[in-house]
């Protein structure tokens, strides 16, 4: 039997848990607890609503029971003539002791999922007045340990405590949420594993995975798993060579929340420092560019001066040669005169005159060249403008005031500012950030579905991890009725292969490719096939 089947069977024996009211069994591979994401960071929300404080009520109310004395005993005592108060009368007037809450462990081990606007408080005891020790966000999972009145004792992630049962679902509803928020991962065993284009050993090889690589599983098809490779590319790996794990979002302790907020603050400071360094480098680059331009201009002027000097020297040499020809012609004329040859004298005189005229013309050209050289010896330079210091505002590095999260109800936005528009305004802040396959970080890199998942999570909206699953959640919307904040889906790889956030006015913002990163495009840059609304 293949290794993948053996692992799955072992999971069935070791980690099976049932949802109340169903015969369906959910499993997590190896020792992975079905309730939580192990090693997977879930996005939490900065803007908190203290709804849980309003929703939670007292876990239970103690009823007093008054016991009637036996009739016979009362009657007997009433017939007795005594001078002191009857004990039976005293017992009737005594208030019965409060009953202890019953601890029901029949649901122990079951998985429940939170259903709320944002989060549910995890408390130290079954009382709304007890200490808050953690938070379970909407669609987060818990493992029920027991039930005390209308409270569940639960364990989720690193948090253990009590939650109001009315805000958690089990059974079929829990199963549907589990299918929606599950994140399936295949961990590679061998040193190298071929990724193929189809679920067949004969299909084309399109990539390689290596030992301990974790691949997101989109679909489990018999002996093959369909995995996401990034850039809307999908392939298949043989299930025999991988471990299959399923993760769910879990609770966050207050200490973990504080650590997350501290890390986000450090990341913010790092981003500000990077922006400052980039601005400073841009200024230095501008200075260096201007200095290089000035140096090039000086070299050009020197070369031009050398060229002008050479031209002047050549012109003077031509004039000197013409003058020498004149002297030679004049000497011939003198010789002809001495020979008393009249015609020879005339011819020689004409030739000498022509040579002299040529000399005058050559000398004039030489003088003009010399004058031009003198004018260009000291060229006039216009002082170039120095680049202005780039406008840069020193970031505020003061530590934000934070000790306990603010649970006060925030003021609602104006009626014209929809949640969908808020989603768009938040998303466009990350235009220009990198595209990283398999990533969910808005600043350090995300793929298309990781981008939409992280943006929605900022508003307490938890959606599936991959585009193919996101296309079947939320509320379907006609493409003719889409609004800002809706998700648009495009085909790719034989199914849904890409997802964007509609901005309005025919534009979308999305994590496109590793070359372009997060960008804004016309929504029809490819043909959208469907739309969903999660807000």
How many distinct domains? 3
Give helix % range: 25-40%
Q: What does the overall shape look like? A: elongated
Give the C-alpha Rg. 44 Å
Output the number of helix runs: 10
Write out the CATH superfamily name of the largest domain. SH3 Domains
Largest beta-sheet characterization? 6 strands, antiparallel
- Mean pLDDT, rounded to whole units? 77
CATH topology value of the largest domain: SH3 type barrels
Report the top-level CATH class of the largest domain.
Answer: Mainly Beta
**Spatial gap, N to C terminus:** 46 Å
Mind telling me which CATH architecture of the largest domain this is?
Roll
Number of strands: 26
β content, as a range?
A: 15-25%
What is the structural class?
A: alpha+beta
Q: Which runs of at least 5 residues are low in confidence (pLDDT < 50)?
A: 1-94, 378-414
Provide a short characterization of the protein structure.
The chain has helices at residues 3-15, 51-55, 71-79, 87-93, 171-181, 254-338, 342-376, 419-427, 448-457, 467-470; strands at residues 17-18, 25-26, 103-104, 111-114, 119-123, 132-137, 141-148, 151-156, 159-164, 168-169, 183-188, 192-196, 205-210, 214-221, 224-230, 233-238, 242-247, 252-253, 440-441, 445-446, 475-476, 487-492, 495-504, 507-513, 517-522, 528-533. It is of the alpha+beta class and 535 residues long.
């Amino acid at each position: 039997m293949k290794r993948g089947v053996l692992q799955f069977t072992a999971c069935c024996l070791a980690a099976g848990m049932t949802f109340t009211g169903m015969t369906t069994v959910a499993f997590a591979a190896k020792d992975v607890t079905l309730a939580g994401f192990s090693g997977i960071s879930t996005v939490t929300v900065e803007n908190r609503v203290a709804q849980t404080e309003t929703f939670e009520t007292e876990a239970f109310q103690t009823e007093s029971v008054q016991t009637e004395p036996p009739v016979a005993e009362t009657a007997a005592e009433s017939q007795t003539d005594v001078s002191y108060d009857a004990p039976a009368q005293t017992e009737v007037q005594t208030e019965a002791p409060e009953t202890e809450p019953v601890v029901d462990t029949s649901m122990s081990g079951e998985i429940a999922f939170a259903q709320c606007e944002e989060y549910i408080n995890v408390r130290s005891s079954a009382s709304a007045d007890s200490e808050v020790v953690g938070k379970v966000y909407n669609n987060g999972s818990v493992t029920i340990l027991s039930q005390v009145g209308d409270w569940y004792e639960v364990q989720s992630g690193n948090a253990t405590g009590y939650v109001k049962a009315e805000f958690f679902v089990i059974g079929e509803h829990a199963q549907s949420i589990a299918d929606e928020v599950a994140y399936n991962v295949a961990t590679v065993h061998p040193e190298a594993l071929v990724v193929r284009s189809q679920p067949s050993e004969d299909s084309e090889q399109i990539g390689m995975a290596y030992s301990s690589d974790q691949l997101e599983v989109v679909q489990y098809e018999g002996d093959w798993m369909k995995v996401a490779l990034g850039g809307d590319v999908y392939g298949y790996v043989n299930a025999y060579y991988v471990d299959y794990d399923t993760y769910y979002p879990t609770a966050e302790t207050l200490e973990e929340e504080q650590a997350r907020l501290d890390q986000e603050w450090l990341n913010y400071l790092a981003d500000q420092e990077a922006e400052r360094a980039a601005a400073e480098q841009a200024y230095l680059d501008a200075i260096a560019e201007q200095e290089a331009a000035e140096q090039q201009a000086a070299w050009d002027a020197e070369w031009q001066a050398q060229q002008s000097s050479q031209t002047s020297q050549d012109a003077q040499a031509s004039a000197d040669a013409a003058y020498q020809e004149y002297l030679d012609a004049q000497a011939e004329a003198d010789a002809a005169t001495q020979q008393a040859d009249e015609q020879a004298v005339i011819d020689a005189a004409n030739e000498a005159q022509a040579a002299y005229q040529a000399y005058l013309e050559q000398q004039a050209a030489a003088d003009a060249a010399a004058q031009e050289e003198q004018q260009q010896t000291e060229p006039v330079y216009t002082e170039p403008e120095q680049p202005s210091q780039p406008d840069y505002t020193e970031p505020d590095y003061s530590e934000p005031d934070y000790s306990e999260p603010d649970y006060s109800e925030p003021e609602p936005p104006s009626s014209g500012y929809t949640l969908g528009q808020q989603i768009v305004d938040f998303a466009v802040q990350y235009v220009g950030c990198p595209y990283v396959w398999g990533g969910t970080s808005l600043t350090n890199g995300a793929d298309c579905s990781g981008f939409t998942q992280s943006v929605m999570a900022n508003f307490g909206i938890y959606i599936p991890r991959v585009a193919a699953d996101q296309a079947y959640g939320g509320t379907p919307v006609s493409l003719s009725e889409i609004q800002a904040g809706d998700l648009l889906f495009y085909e790719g790889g034989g199914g849904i292969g890409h997802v964007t956030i509609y901005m309005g006015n025919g534009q979308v913002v999305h994590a496109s490719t590793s070359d372009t990163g997060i960008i804004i495009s016309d929504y029809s840059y490819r043909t959208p096939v469907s739309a969903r609304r999660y807000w």
